[in-house]
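Data card: per-record layout.
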Amino acid sequence: LEAISDAPCPSEPLNRVTLFQCLPKAGKLELIIQKCVELGIFAIQPVYSKRCVVKPEAKESKLLRFNRVAQEAAKQSGRGRIPKVGLVQNLNECDFSGFDAVLIAYEDEERTTLKQALRKAFGEEKGKSDEGGNDIAIIIGPEGGFEPTEVESVLKNSPAAKSVSLGKRILRTETAGMAMLAMLMYELEG
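The structure for this 190-residue chain is written out next.
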């Protein structure tokens, strides 16, 4: 068979959102991967930070399992591509330079909501058109939240970074990424 032309997949989001998820306890990462793939995530990068209870494992078997979960979720939800799950990295070693916006969910952020940060980064209507094409990183902390110095480091090292509030309640780590992704998709994709 020969390809005649390229066409965008209608089930794929216009914007590419990568989740940088701090390692949660007790196998919750599989649930996070499954649901975020269903919601339209572009890629998932597991990370560890100072308050992570779980110790990082760079086991090939875990990575294969996580990517199999992503594959099954992509198939179930009719995705046109399978999001990649990367090897665990230290949050301080992550490179955010290729992103148009880097949004770190921070429980102590009192001034900037996700909606405000998106409007500042992309304008009132950008992203809701057929153009899209923004590369966005969302960063979710562990069960104990981020150390203030970790948030400061991300903000200092990435000009596109902004700490954001996800609302009046503090969400569990397994809920925060899904909620933030759903809010982001609603705001940018309508």
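Known properties of this structure: The CA atoms of residues 44 and 85 lie 5 Å apart. Residues 18-189 form a domain with the Alpha/beta knot fold (CATH 3.40.1280.10).

See the next section for split statistics.
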